[in-house]
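pinned: reference chain
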Amino acid sequence: MELRPTWIAVAIVTCVIFGSTVNKCLTCGPGTKAEAAPIVVREGKPFVGVKGPGEEGMLTFEPRPKAPPPEPVVEPKPVGLEDHEDLTFDKLASYKYEVHERIEGVPPVEQIPASVRELDGRKIAIKGFMLPYRNDGENVTEFILLRNQGLCCFGTVPRMNEWIHVKMAPGKGAPYSIDVPITVFGALAVGEEYEKNVLMSLYRMESTAVVVPPVYR
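pinned: its structure tokens
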């Protein structure tokens, strides 16, 4: 069946009119009923709104509160060691110490603060890293307790006040725990110890117990 030219013309005009109407509705130019408003910030809070005729509707979004930081896990002290006060290398290494060769008859220059000197003879519990050098079978009987792993992993020489010379008490031994943070319990000795006029240590301990965190056991 042939379509008459008149009907073809009517169909073309209808498509053109319908298409322009749809395009106008989709673009929603100025003067339309609603227009999306940009995101703005007021008093630190973001707002998104839709502007209508003569009024502005606003949706408020409250900022999400920050979660509180987790509380540090405090591991209880072993039975019988509750009287050992907690100490950190932050205090022991809180001052500058210069190493000088000892001269016979000349007292060394006082460099250790009174707040550190007064720790001499106190029972303490301190965390650090083990550098063992004497053992009895599987147990370590003498080691250096380091503030960090610089000497163990990178060969960095620690300062004199960043380590403790630890000897286990008679009959006691420490588990071999290299590259693992441990807690050492015992009596702390503070002061310069010389051997043939050479400074050997500032801090020493006789330890009665060494505790390794559960995750490393």
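why pinned: The first strand starts at residue 35 and ends at 36. The mean pLDDT is 78.
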